[in-house]
Amino acid sequence: MSVPSHASYAKYRPLRELPALALIDAARAGEPVAIEQLLVEARLTLERYAQRSCLVSDVEDAVQESLLILSRYLASLRHAQAWSRWLFRIVRRQCHRLARAALRNDLWDDETAERFVAARTEYELRLDIVAALESLPGSYRDVVVLRDLEGLTIGEMSERLGLSAASVKGRLRRARELTREYLLAQ
Q1: For position 62, which CATH number holds?
Q2: Which residue among 1, 6, 101, 129 is least enclosed by CB atoms within 10 Å?
Q3: Last residue of a domain, one of 61, 78, 103
Q4: Helices in the chain by DSSP H: which ranges?
Q5: What is the number of structural domains in the chain?
Q6: Whether residues 76 and 14 fall in one domain
Q7: Is the full-model pTM beyond 0.70?
Q8: Burial of 51 per CB tally in 10 Å (0-12, 13-18, 19+)
């Protein structure tokens, strides 16, 4: 199944609210017209969400990959009411996957870091870091603040947040990746 092109979007109304449950159920049942309309409506929602979720990663790539996943696994969606949560989870994962791929290219080597720091005053660096921290989702911002500003250990953070140590470490690693990604985009 191919993902509808931009030209075919014109015949559909823009998504103002979540698609009707009947449309989702029809698409889950394999009706081609319902699948196409659902993907077109999902694309608009995915684009808006990806623009906020993907920092450096290409929004269009995340949206295209998400649409392909949606089309392949739509029948596996158990309940139509879970549509929006499923939709956002897929695009968020694609944004994260693309960000990880970009970061593996070692864009943040020592030379790049030194040039970044040398090109800014201390005040500008502080503003950049504050902006990067503000761009983080709350759960990621919390772990960075607890670890790097309050100096808590992983165990103390785990206890305070009510999470396992592994979850805290994962969030901290991801928060630092997102911060690095934000700063590279400057």
Answers
A1: 1.10.1740.10
A2: 6
A3: 103
A4: 6-9, 21-28, 32-53, 59-73, 83-103, 110-118, 122-135, 138-144, 154-161, 165-184
A5: 2
A6: yes
A7: no
A8: exposed
